[in-house]
Amino acid sequence: MAMVELDAVHREYPLGTTVVHAVRGVTFVIDTGEFVSIVGPSGCGKTTILNMIGCIDKPTEGSVRFDGTDTRTLSDSAAADLRLKHIGFVFQSFNLVPVLTVRENVELPMMLAHSRPADRRRVRDHLIDAVGLSEFASHKPGELSGGQRQRVAIARALVNGPRLVIADEPTANLDSETGNSVLDVMRRLNREEDVTFVFSTHDPEILQYASRIIRLRDGRVEEDSRAPAPQTDGVER
Amino acid sequence: MFAKMALLNLWKYRRRMLVVLLGIVMSVLVMEVIGGMLAGMQTTFFNEILRGSGHVQLHSSGWDDRLDSYSIRHLIADPDPLVAQIAALPDVVRVETVLGFQAMLAHDGTTLAVEGRGVAPDTSFFDDATTTITEGSFVAEERPGLVLSADNARLLGVSVGDTVGVFIQSARGIPARRTLMVTGLFDSGHVELDGTAVFLRHEDAQALLGIERATNEIRITLDDPDRAARFVSDHRELFDRHDLEPVTWRDIHGSLIVFVEISDLLTTVINAFVMIVAASVVTNAILMTVFDRARTFATLRAIGMKRRRVIATIVSEGVLLGAIGSAIGLAIGIPIVLYFQTHGLDMGELSQFFGTGQTYYFAFVPGSSATAFGFGVLISVASALYAGTAVTRVDLRSALEEA
């Protein structure tokens, strides 16, 4: 079932007196439950496409549909609502709130969604446990390693039960072992929580985790291939 | 959690927050102290002028203080029954006759032009003189004589017990000379009063001027000065019947009341200036602090926080800072105002110009403090609102990309 549909998407940015063509006519569909990797060299348009899928950005031309809704028609407030309820984000630089603990960072989206305190505690503790950070729940981001921070970000992305998690270079700031463990967690949650993951990377080593690879070059889809069978978990936490 | 975030963020950026707090504290402090000073000046000023003039003055028709405020051509004949009648009216606290005249004092070849006032020994209108006697006593029933300022006594070379020549123009227009004994000296500290005023018993002034059973002024004190105009209109018929022209303290001090209005304007201008300076400091500091966290706010928006919620979070920090800063400003400012309300501030001859004595006494006005507090919070909230609006207008994609 199609969750995300990109149809002839273009994205241009003014840069001084010139215009940067970040995305040039990209078309693809992401189905529910997929574990999709968007790959390509720096500047090929990975982040731009993820931002448009996540309603953080809008296409200059073409359309991006989420569950059939054209995201260009969404107001700022409606886009925020969509992100809150249906989309989780994992950023390359973690983007955790530095003054809050792990527990509070994970709980934050549920507070924004006005979830009941008992539900918040239950889901939060479950996810912190699922990413293996129970003993660090009272720590602040500054007291954690990069891998641990990214796991907090993953837990935060999943806390409102999103249908889609977007991860922009989630392993870029991590060593390979830690990166693998983060991807293991994502893969496992993809299977166990039935969450669709779309993540970008330019690291060929981590492609083994993807069930589908969309390769970009110069803002265009160069290759869209499905792996025969996803790899099993590598290094588990 | 959002309150905790606000508090922790304030603590994390405490140096900049201190700048913000300092800006608010200083602005509230200045507003409180300046407000207290000007309110005190107004209060003192009003008390002084009302105590001196009374709330309503009655003169015989035709009297005009612009022509000759101490003229004895326009007399009120047989004032005692009228004084008794007015004293019995509602709202009236005190009624006195005052006989003003111009005279020249002479002693050992030295002369001095003065303004004489024949008053009751227990007069309530010349506190500045009656309460600052330095030698002898104020005019007394049992001791007729002249009371003048210590300064003028020194100029004339006289002291208590000496006699001085008093040159006047009698009611019939004939120059006359009398001799009176100096019975008291005062030192009010007011340039005008010390420089020109001499006092004697009302009946002695009558005798000096050759007037029998007459005066040229009746002064009335009411229980509320703001009712003076109403009092005059209520009793207009009585005054007309006696051919009297009533004037209220507002008529008498019209030009001085303009000064009070100017001081109100001055307060507004000072407050506006303080607010502009404080707002620019506070806005810059808050803007810097907020834009330091632009990526955090962008992350919050990315995970679903709405723009207005982000602004509300930043404004809540502003409210907190404004309230704390304003409270500190008042905690410092109110004791300063209260201190000078009790002890006064010596302003030298500057204050004498306004007839308020050498010392300014501040006045603590709770409403003024509340206004200063409100302004402090307003500055902070407005600055935070501006910063919040500005940071949420930044393109979300760009804000997230900023490292």
Average residue-wise pLDDT of chain A: 87
User: Could you give the count of β-strands of chain B?
Assistant: 15
- Largest interface, by Cβ-Cβ below 8 angstroms: which chains and how many residues each? A-B, 32 and 25 residues
What can be said about the biggest beta sheet of chain B?
Answer: 6 strands, mixed, barrel
- The Cα radius of gyration of chain B reads 31 Å
* CATH topology label of chain A: Rossmann fold
Widest β-sheet, arrangement of strands of chain B: 4-5-10-7-9-8
Mean pLDDT metric of chain B: 86
State the shape of chain B: elongated
Element-level helix/strand string of chain A: EEEHEEHEHHHEHEEE
Name of the CATH class of chain A: Alpha Beta
Tally of helical segments of chain A: 6
- The geometry of chain A reads as globular
Strand content of chain B: 15-25%
Structure description:
The complex is a heterodimer of chains A (237) and B (403). Chain A has 237 residues and is α/β, with parallel strands linked by helices. Chain A has one domain (2-226): P-loop containing nucleotide triphosphate hydrolases (Rossmann fold, 3-Layer(aba) Sandwich), CATH 3.40.50. Chain A is 31% helix and 29% strand. Chain A contains 6 helices and 10 strands; from the N terminus they run βββαββαβαααβαβββ. Chain A has helices at 46-53, 76-86, 102-112, 117-130, 146-158, 176-192, and strands at residues 2-15, 18-31, 35-39, 61-66, 69-70, 87-90, 164-168, 196-201, 212-217, 220-226. Chain A has a 6-stranded mixed β-sheet, with helices on both faces. Chain A has a 4-stranded antiparallel β-sheet with strand order 2-1-4-5. In chain A, β9 (212-217) and β10 form a beta hairpin. In chain A, α3 (102-112) packs across α4 (117-130), α3 packs parallel to α5 and α5 runs parallel beside α6. Chain A is globular. The two termini of chain A are 31 Å apart. Mean pLDDT of chain A is 87; it is low at 232-237. Chain B is α+β, with helices and mostly antiparallel strands and 403 residues long. Chain B folds into 2 domains: 2-50 and 256-401, no CATH class; 54-253, no CATH class. Helices cover 57% and strands 20% of the residues of chain B. In chain B, the strands form 4 sheets. Chain B has a 6-stranded mixed β-barrel with strand order 4-5-10-7-9-8. Chain B has a 4-stranded antiparallel β-sheet with strand order 3-12-1-13. In chain B, α1 packs across α14, α2 (14-53) runs antiparallel to α12 and α2 crosses α14 (307-343). The radius of gyration of chain B is 31 Å and the shape is elongated. In chain B, 42% of the residues are buried. Classes of the chains: A alpha/beta (237), B alpha+beta (403). Chain A binds chain B through residues 47, 51, 54, 56-57, 76-77, 80-81, 83-85, 88-89, 91, 93, 95-100, 104, 107-109, 111-113, 156-157, 160, and chain B through 1-2, 4-5, 8-9, 12, 295-296, 299-309, 396-397, 400-401, 403.
